[in-house]
Sequence to fold (1326 residues):
Amino acid sequence: MSGFFESQVMLEALGPATLIAVVASSMSVMVLAHRLAFLAVGVSHATLAGLGIAVVLALPLLPTAAVSAVVVALLLGVISPQRGMNEDAATGVLFAGAMALGIVLLSGASKHEVDLFGLLFGNILMVSEQDRFWLICGSVPVLLALLVAARPWWAMAFDAASMRAMGLPVQAYRLMLYAIVGLTVVMCVKLAGIVLTAGMLVLPAASAWLWGRGLLSMWLLSLALSLAGTWLGLYVSYLHDLPSGATVVLLLCAVFLVSRSAHWLLHHRKAGQSH
Amino acid sequence: MSGFFESQVMLEALGPATLIAVVASSMSVMVLAHRLAFLAVGVSHATLAGLGIAVVLALPLLPTAAVSAVVVALLLGVISPQRGMNEDAATGVLFAGAMALGIVLLSGASKHEVDLFGLLFGNILMVSEQDRFWLICGSVPVLLALLVAARPWWAMAFDAASMRAMGLPVQAYRLMLYAIVGLTVVMCVKLAGIVLTAGMLVLPAASAWLWGRGLLSMWLLSLALSLAGTWLGLYVSYLHDLPSGATVVLLLCAVFLVSRSAHWLLHHRKAGQSH
Amino acid sequence: SAGGIVTTLPPLTGLVLLLDADVDVHCLLPPGADAHDFQITPRQAQLLKGADLLIRSSYDDRHWSGLRSNKQVFDLWPDQGHAWLSPRAVRDRLPALAATLQKLSPQRSEQIAAALEHALTSSKVVEAAWIMALAPLYESGVIMQHNAWQTTLREFGVPVWGVLETGHHGDDIGPRQLENALELMRKHPGAVLWGNQRHPDRALYWLREHRGEAEVKLLRFDPLGDCGMTWPQLMQRNLDLLAGHASQ
Amino acid sequence: MAANPPALRLNHVSFGPADARILDTIDLQLDAGHFLGIVGPNGAGKSTLLHIICGLLQASDGHVDLFGECLSRSSRRRLLSQVRFLPQRQESMSSMPVKVRNVVGMGLDDYHKALWFARRNNEQIAHALALTGMQKHAEKDFRALSGGQQQRVRLARALVSSPKILLLDEPAAALDARAQASLYELLRKLCDDTGMSVVMVEHDIAAISDFVNSVACLNRKIHHHAMRGETIPDHVWRDMYGEHMHIVAHDAHCIGCVHPEDKP
Amino acid sequence: MAANPPALRLNHVSFGPADARILDTIDLQLDAGHFLGIVGPNGAGKSTLLHIICGLLQASDGHVDLFGECLSRSSRRRLLSQVRFLPQRQESMSSMPVKVRNVVGMGLDDYHKALWFARRNNEQIAHALALTGMQKHAEKDFRALSGGQQQRVRLARALVSSPKILLLDEPAAALDARAQASLYELLRKLCDDTGMSVVMVEHDIAAISDFVNSVACLNRKIHHHAMRGETIPDHVWRDMYGEHMHIVAHDAHCIGCVHPEDKP
Ligand SMILES: Nc1ncnc2c1ncn2[C@@H]1O[C@H](COP(=O)(O)OP(=O)(O)OP(=O)(O)O)[C@@H](O)[C@H]1O
Ligand SMILES: Nc1ncnc2c1ncn2[C@@H]1O[C@H](COP(=O)(O)OP(=O)(O)OP(=O)(O)O)[C@@H](O)[C@H]1O
Ligand SMILES: [Mg+2]
Ligand SMILES: [Mg+2]
Ligand SMILES: [Zn+2]
Fold:
């Protein structure tokens, strides 16, 4: 393995990357079922606005960004079910607003202390002890929420109106889902950066989508594919000395493509036989 | 007007900004109707991948980015109607893939000539003669396509299956729409940057959405609101010396909020009266 | 890995090489890359982890996250940006750097001490060359987009009429700033537009496009150089750039 | 609370702005085991009424009692867990991969509990599928079913938890002739055997009249409430589908449009 | 080309994999002015058949002729402009603001032309709305209509351009009793007066038998094609809804499941 397992750097990165992969792939099933890919992108970009606010008001940077991401996600949960506005447009509006606000706020401030590119592109290789701690703190509620609400979330994605008619607190579940997605996004941003977060939150379930037959099989499959992609990505990034976050996402893309083509081939062969 | 109309900088920016506002707001109606806000965001980010490819293969930067944006848009048009993949997820996958590819490619290359920040944040104030030329070249096909295909696009957004059953080439119209959105995105990116493009392509129609009663009224209204927002934004940016692109988008956000609240008030008052 | 010295930016490597040509020194920022969108790769992270000494200039690289986990860190300029471009600042910090290097490799202590002497004199030579080369600019002054060279030029007494980017680079420059720059350029018709090669000097190009009748020169320098270039070489390269443009 | 409160009671329920009511002071009572059919022209407010009963819409006036208790924010969850609703059309066809078995399972009360609570209710699910004749499709992907088959699966989902009140909005719309008849029979049987109450919106009064206990003629208000066997007077039909149509057909905000009640 | 080719002709049309046909060698011919009803159990392939006729699905075998010409990629646009299709359900409820009038206008051939070509066809639109009794709602927002009202508007859209072939998939599903009857009457009248041909899928054979020219009993293949007045033999019903249901109900890929045709 050309020294991969001797490399202390990679071994240290393995833990957080695996944790992120587990959390993100678990949530990715919900993200795909509820069509929240754009929400994830919007929320990840909204951390920029949070950063701007933090700089202007001299608040601590990362907590403010995290809180702002969750707040933006909740805001979308509140406004999007309203009549006359589809979620896509609502997310676009918030996305644009948050970015513009972030840029205007940051333009007025001295930005020497802001790790803008660290935020944009993330860095999975330099995780501090503190990051590790926050990561674990973040994944506990996410995984807990998944255990508690995975089935209602799944059922809601299928047919929310019927669930509401059954007396279930659909809106509360939805807000919880959005907040948890926001939290997951913050964790991913810490490691993969704003621009790669969407990949971690979409690709695993997208690869599993065609093969899954239900919630559990989908979940397990996307977990497995995500872990495979992440570990392989780290390895390739070590082998060819490429930026790790982007390589992991590229490998997840490759997994997605392989899964799609395999399905297509199988489907095609079957259809071909029948003629 | 505190020198706004004496300022050479602002007067020069007025023309391109107005052109962009016209083109973007016209397309924004279609973007909202077809739920392409995420596509616009995805395509704008995909220019980064185009840039990466251009740098690695030593191609001219901007044309490659433009072509790659249109290609990505078309790719989404081809893959998204397929079974088992909703558009949101498909866009998320392409978004993630493009970003990861762009970053990996750019990381290995010498980036002397890549204006990454210009691409990310744009600058509406510093438009060269050449930019101006390309802008006009870009808006002609967009406006022409709108004149030709606005009604089929609108009808498709409402009910594509029936249109296909009428024998209309729905898929061709869809690809055309995606390509034109891609082109509009490239134009917006040139002036407003990747991160603000979504605002120009979503906010005008989102503001007009609740008031419109059909294609034409929606179109005219979003045109008017977009022009108002753009001009006011330029003025405010001059007044307070703020980054112009972001200020314009912020003003468009303000227009959106005002429009929403006005609608809500009117609606609420009406509902209130009736009790 | 085998230890050695890791620097964040190429000019810091140049300073180390000036004092100790035999030392094992690696630079994190790859040649040609922009310090602002630096992303560490696995091998670099490994180098950093195993390094005996990290040399940085935290005013310029403080936004690089995760640089803390090292055995020893020597921070050359915690409160001055692009300070290696100023011969005076270099002269001020070279002895401390030499002391650190001596501690790291005591066996070469004497060589380093000798090199320090030599370096200090060569910095004076460089300074003199710059004063000569900058002579035509004392009248006309400069307008720059990024503030890399601001301190240095001020030290040499070259008037800096305007710096377009106040903070970090990548600012979406506000309209007034741009307008002021336009006015400055008209007020100081001979002013040189002072740019950087690894920096999108878009505002400068725009200014040049709006020069009107006036004769305006746009010069682009290289404040970072490449890894392996010693500090005098870096300064000479920029002198060449200045001379090359001047002779055009 | 009375010893035997009615399963459902609507008290002066109105909906819509006061000058253009979609529903106007509806009073209705349903005992356990009662099978109520609702007929009325398009746009009469039938779907709206069902939405109000199951709390998807909030009545502008009046209130809904379920099992003798007022339906409110706090009682909502408890009361509605006994109620199942089959909407006129599914809001958006989701492209999620779900097995038919799991779709039916979503109707169970404890499906929505945390993962470690979930029990297996395979018999219940199989039973519900058998009721609607879909047991053979249990392992299929829901997306691969035809319109009528999907409707039957949704019906099974509504039945799986043996609700006390079942609200059906044109359930037979996509069903074939045979399935329609057996659906009505099934509902009748469940009402008799388990004391379930059913409110069903259906256009074809002839088809349902053999099975229901009563039929309510709704068009903005309840024009008539006929018990089984009773014939509905002609003037009711005229009122509902005839002249009155013009009122319904009017724009709700049109000025100068008089309601028939305002006429002397 | 014959002097008077049939409006529609299906030649050995099959659909689905060879070992699990959804449609099996369907032959069908429809003359101008013919009103064909299709009945069959859920999952019989009725919607699939309509989709094949209007080119939304591609037959696995056989081909479709419209007006004597084969429906192909190149003839598609020309031929289908004379055909209108009303699907079983609208794919996704769009939240776009569209006036009812404009929804109907989308059925016109020249609606989809460039903006500078567009003529005003207000009379045509008003006429189509009047046919389905929705003329009063012309200026309303489509989203504010009830399920049945929306269905009527879509019907008007299908009728507005006076198509030569009309394909209707359970058009009466959401309509009230009165509107159902008048829909069938209207279709009969249009067939007689304008020579339009209609293919309508409907479950309630009793309701349509007075209006149609013929009824086809479909379940994977056409079991019977009865002219008006002719009674459908009992064994056809048994075949369609009875034993045969088990075949349809089977998973298409199940092993060991024999087709009744394979039996001796
Ligand atoms: N998307 C799909 N993928 C796979 N199989 C499908 C799909 N859609 C329908 N089928 C199958 O094709 C068969 C026929 O479906 P179709 O929708 O044509 O039935 P139908 O006659 O219209 O029934 P209904 O009366 O319920 O509308 C069914 O057995 C169904 O399972
Ligand atoms: N979202 C809405 N906004 C405004 N008005 C609405 C909305 N939905 C329904 N309406 C109006 O409320 C009235 C009743 O609608 P409802 O859906 O309850 O009718 P219905 O009796 O179920 O008719 P159908 O038989 O067609 O299903 C209609 O006149 C309709 O125009
Ligand atoms: Mg209804
Ligand atoms: Mg069907
Ligand atoms: Zn800089």
